[in-house]
Amino acid sequence: MSAVRIEIGDDAVVEGTVAPGFEAVRDQFVANFRDRGEVGGSVCVTLGGERKVDLWGGIADPKTRRPWTSDTVGTVFSCTKGATATCAHILVSRGLLDLDAPVTELWPEFGQNGKERVTTRMMLDHSAGVPALRAPVANERSYDWDYWTERLAAEEPFWEPGTRNGYHGFTIGWTAGEMVRRVSGMSLGAFFRKEVAQPLGLDFWIGLPEEIEPRVAPVIPHLPKATDPKTVFQTDLTRRDSIASLFYFNTGKWRSGGANSREGHAAEIGAANGITNARGLAGLYAPLANGGALNGVRLVDATTLARMGEVSMATHDDATLRVPTRFALGYMKSMDNRKRSLGARYWGEDCDSVIMGPAAFGHVGAGGSLAFADPANGLSFGYSMNRMGPGILMNQRGQSLVDATYRSLGFASKDAGVWTR
Description:
It is built from 13 helices and 15 strands. Helix 2 packs antiparallel against helix 11. The radius of gyration is 20 Å and the shape is globular.
């Protein structure tokens, strides 16, 4: 491993370590700051469970000029879904949770208004039919677990469950998370901490302790321009009764700055408020890239791991995001929308896609963070940042790091929509 310290301007630096053969990842990370507007961030790559790239840099808080250091953490938005899904699969692996059993066996109240036949599998692959709540979320109960689970149990599905998929962008934190809670007897955040983060030594929380708060990098929102294209998703946002609008806006206090509030950090939102950095993200997926276990810590067995990476639902028109999507059980698979997305044509081809290896599974976070495992190559990857980018899935900053990683492993092309040799 070679030590890295590179000045990137305005008294900011990139630091960390890079193994021989992975210099291209370092170069793209530096280019993100110099050429693509990165403010602060981190990237980590493991191969065979060993770190090959561990870099961080830039500014964590532009208001105070606090630098992004080795232990800086931040909100990784929907990358949290991968952590929640992993908790569910741990229980599946232990024989405690049946993916194909009706949810009502564990959660009887959920079997209302046409949801009687929903299975845990549907909860994880975004086909359960409850991607949002119709009635306004009460601000004073925005982070109340029981409030969300009661509301979702009573909600009428937006489509017949299991017949199509639409991104459950916020609600999956409670639909999947409640299954974990009911089986384990622990809150989602507590289960994740006890069974995943602590055994693996990860700086990763769903429900942040107050003592970690000084290390958090505030989120810098992406500010849309009047000239931005009116994609189908953005047009749907203007229709108050659309799934997209309800998912995006009807989240109570979270929508109005929750990602930068102590209250929002302390809550347990299994879809959106995980706090970590690239090292934590790559560390989560490292066992899943290496047979389900690493350094004596086993998360899942081989059968469960094989199931985790398989496509469970896919569509040319996601009911929420309004772009083609492909989902495994709680995770995203490679999605190539470079020629199928207006956003990609406007913001650059890497926008609205996430292109990984064929066997890879993981999750994008709002603004462009990413974490995944590629079991075929023993690879895990994590990227986190504070400045959000445009579009629905990745943008050039994160995808450039993924591309450099695969090229470092001898892969030649992503023209097939997945990385191939």
